Amino acid sequence: MKELSIARLTPDEWQKAQASIELFWDVAPSQETIVKFLSNSHHILLSAQLDDLPVGQVIAYILDRWDKNESMLFLYSIDVAETHQRRGIGKALIAAVRKLGRSQGCSEAFVFANESNLPAMQLYQSTGGKRSNPDDVVMFEYD
Question: Quick one: average pLDDT of 99-121?
């Protein structure tokens, strides 16, 4: 059986990051963009790999707070290849990013999900996520 490895990618691993991002997103960021992202200590890209092939990733941001001395962790995107879903990879990614966040001084973490995205809702609940503002969360976007 293949062994899952999860690692935070560094600027020197920009090619691994690019392969991971392109697997899950319809973009092909440049080397410069990826290195800039990975060089920021408040930006996190964890890659889950089986036999050196990406099968999952977490993109997260450490957010400084003005009201506390502790930061919080924003889980921006959790992605697992469709062929590898329901094998514990998403749970392992969330556990790994939460552990990393705690080591960086984050006292809490949060993620947004669409209620219609049942796999995401189940994943977040199964990993200890507690739903807040059950019917009151609306996201606005600006250009």
Answer: 89
